[in-house]
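User: Structure with guanosine-5',3'-tetraphosphate, tokens only please.
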Amino acid sequence: MTELEKEISRRRTFAIISHPDAGKTTLTEKLLLYGGAIAQAGAVKGKKNARHAVSDWMEIEKQRGISVTSSVMQFQYKGSCINILDTPGHQDFSEDTYRTLMAADSAVMVIDASKGVENQTRKLFKVCAMRHIPIFTFINKLDREARNSFDLTQEIEEELGIPTCPVNWAIGSGKDFKGVYDRLSRRVIYFDPTGGAHKVSASKADLNDPSLSEILGEENYLTLKDDIELLDGASEELDLDAVHEGRLSPVFFGSALTNFGVEPFLEQFLAMTPPPMPRSSSEGEIDPFSPDFSAFVFKIQANMNKAHRDRITFLRVCSGRFDREMDVLHVQSGKKMRLSQPQQIMAQEREIIDEAYAGDIIGVFDPGIFSIGDTICSPKKKFKFEGIPTFAPEHFKRYRSKDTMKRKQFVKGITQIAQEGAIQIFREPFTGMEEIIVGVVGALQFDVFEYRMKNEYGVEMNADGLSYSFIRWIESSPCDCKDLKLSSDTKLVSDLKDNPLLLFTSEWNIRWALERNEGLKLEEFSKE
Ligand code: G4P
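Assistant:
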């Protein structure tokens, strides 16, 4: 194996997805703990405050004490080089969260064991499922009262439409949560509580070990034996091909807070999740192990440092090795260039890097030439990676400039910000650019947009909130779009590229439109 092949095959690049509060941050931190990247858990927890000191990024980030950016955390674990992509949740949930998933080779879906599948889990799952990437399930918070494990896996299968295969199984729950049963090695792994700040010590025993009844408690032990018998008879086989194609989700149980089950999960997840996978392009699939460097842009962070008006573009390396001194081709503009100040952005620090390999994420300074989805590759090659879809916004406002004299700046600002992918803009039929409908995935994007319009383009705006929550691209229509039969609160609009779309106030209205207009085809994502 060459050095290049060795480096690429040890990389694992994934995103952790969850509904807010299911434990994504805690699990990420514990993975860093087991990878030795942090000595003690608790360090990441304070990040919301610590960020003020280290970040000179957008003013709004400082004001609100939140992260508007998504970053990547890299660490090593037993020979693997792991890149965890941060998918912003909570108030900073945005279209970037979805786009980040385009850069991941797999996803870990964290589910709260007392709540099951929640709203944001569904949305993020859908985006992962669209790409057919492997999705691993970590059922978290077993140290609290949890729902029955069979019910939870059944809910995942029914709600998300993906078969599951428990790789391990919880032993007890709440105060009585003792550990997990590993179905592959057929051994019980039980833990000694440490409070969670440090690694937890684990012991292993055969399921028939006579001392287990005492260690686990008789009731837990008997239930476990029954459960395992049931599982062995009824659950899906662990078919790795199905896992890799996103047709089967391996399930793990644990508690990120107490570390119970975290390491067994990490080890088996790393063994099952694939190294960087080939990506589709205009020239067919691009092999990650090809020596020629290639990458695509999945995120642009504007004006991180206001004084320099710079932008940082985040690239996912898809093949070969990146070298700081190398010349690359920006395919969309046809320009040959050197990437300026390539850096890896770890939770809070930025570090200039000399090299990176397929699977890695790098940030580069962008003089304003890159767009979301662009391809950057070795000048020897010329191809375009498949574009990043546009995701359906869920919040809409109609904006106009307060000062009519500033119409030009208004149009310029709103168009540029939309081109960057920070917002989506829509026009109503027969209207000019005086009033524009802005759509966003997460409401925070409105704040960032308004802030940037004022600070970068000097435009203050009036906004009307709109009650639409759903948007669909019209794939095909049986008639001229303006003749479609629609409910009175459905609106026809067009996007930047003049594609027709419909804005709906409810899912019921979407069904209504489909029923009344035979042949109408609507899409939730727009693929360029
Ligand atoms: P998120 O990133 O998915 O939004 O979730 P996060 O990790 O921030 O966790 C949300 C809350 O759930 C936190 O509590 C966290 O401590 C708790 N939590 C995470 N994993 C577990 C677990 O395995 N067991 C239990 N019992 N709790 C867990 P908080 O009260 O909001 O914050 P804090 O006061 O603990 O800092």
